[in-house]
From TrEMBL:
Keywords: Cytoplasm, Metal-binding, NAD, Transferase, Zinc
InterPro entries: DHS-like_NAD/FAD-binding_dom, NAD-dep_sirtuin_deacylases, Sirtuin, Sirtuin_cat_small_dom_sf, Sirtuin_class_III, Ssirtuin_cat_dom
Protein name in the entry: NAD-dependent protein deacylase
Active-site residues annotated for this sequence: H111 (proton acceptor)
EC number of the protein: 2.3.1.286
Cofactor remark from the record: Binds 1 zinc ion per subunit.
Family recorded in the similarity comment: Belongs to the sirtuin family. Class III subfamily.
Organism encoding this protein: Commensalibacter melissae
Residues annotated to bind Zn(2+): C119, C122, C138, C141
EC category: transferase
Domain annotation Deacetylase sirtuin-type: ranges: 1-234
Role this protein plays: NAD-dependent protein deacetylase which modulates the activities of several proteins which are inactive in their acetylated form.
Length: 237
């Protein structure tokens, strides 16, 4: 069986209009990551941190899935309908919902989701589409301890067990639009080394390029549909 693991990063959503993190005009060129992406930043200035995520959340509907998200959803459909001899695990570091809006039904948001919020008192995670403020109370336990359900620097990403299982079992690992700087995702390519073919699809060389068997340079909307079509042919029943 062909067992594919796809890891996506901010680069896949760039052509939808979303900022990446580390490109010249990226989020970390405009915001201080200590302030908006750490627990310490949240404790120091919760207003500022909530405002950052409120803005990202309220802007999200303006952006539409692009051809790369759509191609991955098409790949999932081909797997689910058993049109190809393959299994697929999609992992994203992105907190946007563009994979879902493109039609992907099964994916792991390892860094959390903009449309979710977590209460640190009752530990419930809930769907959340409006703004959140330091005084907003939890609809379940009423404590005013809500935080964005985002994995900040120094915190453990979600679904690591499921991801570990998928990596230990895959024979094709594909990373799309990620700079290969942030661990543990940046280390996935090393975890599968020797067992799986590894391919990177990215606008430019990344920190991880030399770890991949193949590195394709180009934009996600060009490369991903082409790559998915290649897989659909190669894995045809
Ligand atoms: N097509 C393909 N790749 C692109 C495109 C594009 N249109 N535009 C940019 N890229 C590439 C960039 O060249 C870069 O290598 O996407 C990569 C984006 O890298 P980052 O901005 O570092 O994003 P990512 O790797 O997803 O960041 C990882 O860092 O700050 C944290 O939690 C945040 O999940 C994020 C994590």
């Amino acid at each position: 069986m062909n067992k594919i693991v796809v890891l996506t990063g901010a680069g896949i959503s760039q052509e939808s209009g979303l900022d990446t993190f580390r490109d010249a005009n990226g989020i970390w060129a405009k915001y201080n990551m200590e302030e908006v992406c750490t627990l310490e930043g949240f404790k120091k200035n919760p207003e500022k941190l909530h405002e950052f995520y409120n803005q990202l959340r309220s802007n999200l509907p303006k952006y539409l899935p692009n051809a790369a998200h759509i191609a991955l959803a098409k790949l999932e459909q081909a797997v689910l309908k058993k049109e190809i001899e393959a299994e697929l695990v999609l992992i994203t570091q992105n907190i946007d919902d563009l994979h879902e809006r493109a039609g992907s039904r099964f994916l792991y948001h390892m860094h959390g989701e903009l449309y979710k919020i977590r209460c640190t008192t009752c530990d419930r995670r809930m769907e959340w589409h409006k703004s959140c403020f330091p005084y907003t109370s939890c609809p379940y336990c009423h404590a005013v301890t809500l935080r964005p359900d985002i994995v900040w620097f120094g915190e453990m990403p979600y679904y690591m067990q499921e991801i570990g299982r998928a990596l230990s079992d895959c024979n094709l690992f594909v990373a799309i639009g990620t700079s290969g700087v942030v661990y543990p995702a940046a280390g996935f390519v090393n975890e599968v080394q020797g067992r799986a073919k590894t391919i990177e699809l990215n606008l430019e060389h990344s920190m991880g390029t030399s770890n991949f068997d193949e590195s394709w340079q180009g934009s996600a909307t060009e490369l991903v549909p082409e790559f998915v079509n290649y897989l659909l042919n190669a894995y045809q029943k």
